[in-house]
Amino acid sequence: MSARVCTGLCALGIAAALAVTARAAPDPDVAWLFNETGGDSVPDEIGAVHGVVNGTEDWVPGLDGNALKFDGETIIEFPDSNLINTVGPFQKRTILATFSVDDADSDAEKQTIFDEGGRTRGLVLYVFDGEVWIGGWNRAEYNWNGEWISAPIKSNTWYQVGLVIRDASGAVEADKFEMWLNGVLVEKRDGGQLHAHGDDTGIGAVNQNTVFHDEAGSGDNIDYFTGLIDEVQLWNASLSPADIESVAKGFLAVDVQNKLVTRWGSIKAGHIGR
């Protein structure tokens, strides 16, 4: 067997091994997988929190199945739901979002991946000035003013960003708010439970108010994302580190396999062309 053939097959074997060894995480409560091929409907594959695209419906190949391409003027709008905001308090929450942003370094505006809640209580994931950010706050009941955590990212690269409220209570406590990136813990900060909150949920822009790290975020349909979002999943549970790593392994296996298949195709083409 030639070195080139071995390189291609061995690499594909590594990707397959990654996929096989990933343990199964619990099913999410809400899952938007973005595997549609047309139309403005964004179904929740698990629950009943279905969304509608307000803007351009540009369904394209994603990391795993299809994705929605956001053009900086498109938002997916979701109604109130007891799975997300109308009951509570939520003492546990995990959100994982898979995305690729066109211009990670842009500082013209925040690029919102996901937001729920408003100025008093809420959660948000977004990109700004070369970093992906998460934020959480509950400024009533027990006065969690909020925490925002960030990590550096690059343009046109797939990432899976995670936000976790871990077994929180009605008090601000240490290490209750976590950021994850590609299955690796970035940082823990003070946090607490999230009480029932108004203002609708959005993907691709702020639907109805949020709070960013600089206190901006007042307004409806603002701070649009430009790039691809492949899926967003939400659990009303605090996924264990092993489960978060498991979900990321599945994501990374797909990414590695796609890259290796592309590379292997180039190797074959070069070999055949000789």
Describe the structure.
With 274 residues, the chain is of the alpha+beta class. Helix content is 19%, strand content 39%. It has helices spanning 3-21, 241-272; strands at 30-32, 41-42, 51-54, 59-61, 66-71, 75-78, 93-101, 111-117, 121-128, 131-138, 144-152, 159-165, 173-181, 184-191, 201-203, 206-208, 220-222, 226-235. The strands form three sheets. Strands 1, 4, 5, 7, 12, 13, 14 and 18 form an eight-stranded antiparallel sheet that branches. An eight-stranded antiparallel sheet has the order 2-3-6-15-8-9-10-11, with no helix packed on it. β4 and β5 form a beta hairpin. α1 (3-21) runs antiparallel to α2. It is globular, with a radius of gyration of 19 Å. Residues 1-22 and 259-274 have low confidence and may be disordered.
Count of extended strands: 18
Helix fraction bin: 10-25%
Using the 3D structure, state the CATH architecture of the largest domain. Answer: Sandwich
Can you give the mean pLDDT? 88
Taking the sheet with the most strands, its summary is: 8 strands, antiparallel
**CATH topology call of the largest domain:** Jelly Rolls
Poorly predicted regions are 1-22, 259-274
